[in-house]
Amino acid sequence: GAVVSQHPSWVICKSGTSVKIECRSLDFQATTMFWYRQFPKQSLMLMATSNEGSKATYEQGVEKDKFLINHASLTLSTLTVTSAHPEDSSFYICSASPSGQANYGYTFGSGTRLTVV
Amino acid sequence: KQEVTQIPAALSVPEGENLVLNCSFTDSAIYNLQWFRQDPGKGLTSLLLIQSSQREQTSGRLNASLDKSSGRSTLYIAASQPGDSATYLCAVGPGGGNKLTFGTGTQLKVEL
After folding, report:
1. Is the dihedral of CA B4, B49, B43, A82 positive or negative?
2. How far, rounded to the nearest angstrom, does the alpha carbon of residue A62 sit from its chain's CA centroid?
3. Is residue A33 within 8 Å of A48, Cβ to Cβ?
4. Which DSSP letter does residue B98 get?
5. Which partner for B100 in B12, B22, B50, B91 could form a disulfide, CB atoms 3.0-4.6 Å apart?
6. pLDDT-based confidence at B1, cuts 50/70/90?
7. How far is A15 from chain B (nearest CA, A)?
């Protein structure tokens, strides 16, 4: 149980375009989902907390207008990288935990490799 | 602010060795601690979850311990195999669906 599906697994886009990444909890509901960014040979950096039905909470230094987060249902959160530039190239990962089960732990998606050319 | 450190940063061992990965955290007010494995270019796979009231968890050749009062956790891998080669991350959770704080990771290589 507790499977998180993330799509696409990789994407290449031109500079200036927008890219949407989806994160779905397949067999549980998640009021909260988390979006991370990871640079090569570094640990995960939390970008934002996605809250179902309300605005996302962004970490300090993360541009909310550039990284749009939508959490319209209890099983889906999306991250849209708007007007992408080469410096946005990175590995993006989402995670979630079953709502109301704080002792369950977190499950992660398989990640999305974004390359902006 | 919670800070999580992992030692060593990198480790290379011959196949068959038993090994210990260390994780330390500065704030002992945690709800649980989770160990993950990450293969290159992949997401994170949860290995073990220890609740704050627990001392250890075991899964196959893996054993994780937690000493909350001293702010330490260890991941013990028995009879290591080349397939164990990956980056291992520990993360502490404050509970309530709040965000995890990740350690810096240990990159493990098990050689034939």
Report:
1. negative
2. 13
3. no
4. P
5. B91
6. confident
7. 22
